[in-house]
Design a protein that fits this description.
With 559 residues, the chain is α+β, with helices and mostly antiparallel strands. Helix content is 30%, strand content 25%. It has two domains: 154 residues, Glutaredoxin; 323 residues, no CATH class. It contains 13 helices and 27 strands. The strands form nine sheets. The protein has a seven-stranded mixed beta sheet with strand order 8-7-9-10-23-22-19, sandwiched between helices. It has a four-stranded mixed beta sheet with strand order 2-1-5-6, covered by helices on one side. A three-stranded antiparallel beta sheet has the order 11-12-21. The mean pLDDT is 85.
């Protein structure tokens, strides 16, 4: 009786302790079900309900069913730390049997920012039918809402790989959205103007995308040191006129105070308008007047144009003289397509990044301990041409020879991190700050900046119409109908430079894609069908026969 009471008391005690203590064990090799500390902290600190509507429900193809299941598991994991402050529901936007109602729902989702995708699936009779899916979600918090597109659609990858990459990004996508909705006052971002930089139309799509994270301003420098102190990050995008020393000092002291910078500078200028009209042009070194400052920070921009065999195509008129224009795609080595590496959170799982008339960057050795990380580089087959040089569309007729493209991995985009030295140390300061006295900071606090030797990475196409300017999405190629990874690269880069909480590190999570060998399945299909169907039945028969003889032997011995 005493033993029974002790056992019962022990069980009750263990049950009580288990309700008070929280512990979980993730036995997966890639820690698929383990949230990062920053995610747990953000979810635990919610003081209102986050409501999530996911538009993945109904009859889904196998890949999207896997995506739905993984998303449900991720949201369940979120609820463990957010408790009742996170609610979610899965909705089928195609549930209505009325075609007009479905179209109205589709239009509403699209207008709210949820992008559709068309897929082909098998019907019950074995035929092929087209379905419209909205693999996205709408997340609401404190009266604000944000659309999330969950499908990573890289045309260079298979459907299974895109689904897997989408699943990998779930934690970052939702935690980043919750963090953005939690901010009461948006930080400020400045695009610098006044030196021939890209205008508000040419950077319009990126500015619109970033407006959900920052208050975006276009700023002309006035020479006052401290003018940029209220900005979290400053972008210099494609200056074509020399930046005066008084303005360079403003940028320099902004960096010294811990400001984050993105320098998008073309070392070589090419008149693309002349080329678009079928003529030729001269590529000349760009007199931007930033070489000394960037060299001081740890990089050198080379006044050489890069050509790469891995490049975009452009339409070229192949019709004979006197015939109607007939355009055909032709590779243009001056437009390299850069493959982002998978070892950095900024570039992980990105599509190719399209560039135009880019140059290379040299990493300068220094004694300031500046960390330098190459984000984008050319392919294994590239070369450099010293400016000034002649550029003409007629060069397309010359097929590139691989032996001429013998340079590999030329750096094009670099992130610098550390304590930068001022470019104005030991200079007379009286001409600066509009004559007002100020204290020069000769060495900065630890900060980050990015240097990219191509401003066109952030330039979207603009078409002027009678009703206004039509801004094409950044990275979209009108000719090939393909969207490159330019916008996601820039958004990730801005997030990385301003991310003090370490959220972008969530993009480093990797799930191994364990796919079946389809060729082997086809070759060995009959063998495995026989094994799976016949072997279990054979084992049962053998076990039955063995058990029969065992019983017979045991009972015969008793007799």
């Amino acid at each position: 009786m005493v033993n029974l009471l002790v056992s019962a008391a022990t069980v009750l005690l263990l049950m009580f302790i288990s309700t008070q203590l929280f512990w979980r064990i993730d036995l997966t090799s890639e820690k698929r079900y383990s949230l990062s500390p920053v995610s747990k902290q953000i979810l635990s600190n919610l003081n209102d309900v986050v409501y999530i509507q996911v538009y993945l429900e109904g009859e889904l193809p196998i890949g999207f069913s896997k995506m739905q299941r993984s998303l449900r598991e991720t949201l369940d994991e979120f609820r463990i730390y957010a408790h009742e402050n996170l609610q979610y529901v899965f909705v089928n936007p195609s549930e209505s049997g009325n075609a007009k109602e479905r179209e109205a729902i589709y239009a509403e989702l699209y207008n709210r920012g949820i992008e559709p995708t068309n897929i082909y699936d098998r019907d019950k009779e074995g035929g092929s039918i087209q379905k419209v899916l909205f693999p996205g979600a709408m997340i609401s918090y404190k009266g604000k809402e944000l659309p999330l597109n969950l499908l990573k659609n890289n045309p260079a990858l298979s459907g299974d790989e895109n689904i897997n990459r989408s699943i990998q990004a779930f934690e970052f996508t939702f935690i980043d959205a919750i963090e953005r909705l939690s901010i009461d006052t948006l930080p400020k971002l400045a695009f610098i103007e006044g030196h021939g930089e890209l205008n508000q139309f040419q950077t319009g799509d990126l500015a619109q995308t970033l407006s959900g994270r920052f208050k975006v301003d276009y700023v002309e420098l006035n020479g006052n040191v401290g003018q940029l102190k209220d900005y979290s990050i400053v972008v210099v995008a494609g200056p074509t006129a020399p930046i005066p020393e008084t303005h360079k000092l403003v940028l320099d002291q902004y960096v010294m105070q811990g400001g984050r910078m993105i320098w998008l500078v073309d070392p070589v200028r090419v008149n693309a308008d002349s080329l678009s009209r079928g003529a030729s042009t001269i590529a000349m070194p760009n007199q931007h007047n930033l070489d000394d400052m960037l060299f001081r920070y740890g990089v050198r921009l080379n006044s050489r144009l890069v050509q790469d065999i891995q490049c975009a195509v452009i339409p070229v008129n192949v019709a004979l003289a006197g015939q109607d224009p007939r355009f055909a795609p032709a590779p243009w080595p001056f437009y390299p397509l850069l493959a982002p590496p998978a070892n950095h959170p900024v570039t992980r799982n990105l599509n190719l990044v399209k560039t135009e008339f880019i140059s290379s960057i040299d990493l300068v050795s220094d004694e300031n301990g500046i960390s330098k990380t190459v984000l984008l580089s050319t392919s294994q087959n590239s070369r450099e041409l010293q400016a000034p040089l002649f550029v003409s569309l007629s060069q397309i007729e010359m097929s590139p020879r691989e032996r001429d493209y013998h340079i590999s991995n030329l750096p094009v985009a670099v992130v610098l991190e550390g304590e930068f030295p001022s470019n104005f140390t030991n200079r007379p300061l009286s001409p600066y700050n509009n004559g007002a006295p100020f204290t020069l900071k000769p060495k900065g606090v630890s900060t980050k900046m990015a240097v990219i030797a191509d401003a066109d990475i952030i330039r979207n196409d603009v078409r002027l119409r009678p009703d206004g300017a039509l801004i094409t999405p950044l990275g979209y190629d009108r000719y090939t109908k393909q969207t490159f990874g330019n916008k996601e690269f820039m958004v990730n880069l801005v997030s990385y430079l301003t991310d003090d909480a370490g959220l972008l590190g969530l993009r480093s999570k990797e799930f191994k894609l364990r796919l079946l060998d389809k060729k082997k399945i086809s070759e060995e299909r009959l063998k495995w069908q026989v094994i799976n169907l016949a072997l279990p039945s054979l084992l049962l028969v053998l076990l039955g026969v063995a058990w029969f003889y065992v019983r017979r032997y045991r009972f015969s011995r008793r007799e």
